[in-house]
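Data availability (excerpt). The following record was deposited with the supplementary files.
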Amino acid sequence: MSQSHSDDRYIDSRRLICVYNADTGLIQMLMHAVHKQVRPDTYPCSLCALTYGAVSMRGDWKTYWQDLDAQVDFYHRDDFTEDFPLFGTGGSQEVTLPVIILDEADFEPRILVSSEELDGMADVNELMAKVDSELGLVSSDLQVAV
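Predicted structure:
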């Protein structure tokens, strides 16, 4: 099941879909926590590494997405594939994970922050700056088109 920051004011607005390159479940969570600490250079989920400490979400990241003027939904690989079969594992438009997708009313969902971009980020501050920048560009593009 996905974790969500939901509010009625976001209906027909923008939604960020953050997808971790990890599956749900307690055993998976423990394995990922250990892997991230022991072999961070081979850890397969840069979104997890940027936004989580050893076992919980970083406070600065949590405050950031709670304050965004957007709905933010969090998925793991398996529940993302279940809810978005087109983009999930084996789908005809499968996306490389981890990823942050922007879904807006009247527009096709698009990759906001790619796996490659996430892999190259040094810290969560860089991620927050990238999301701010991308959302700003989206707002500017929409204003020009009106």
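Summary of structural features: The longest helix spans residues 124-145.
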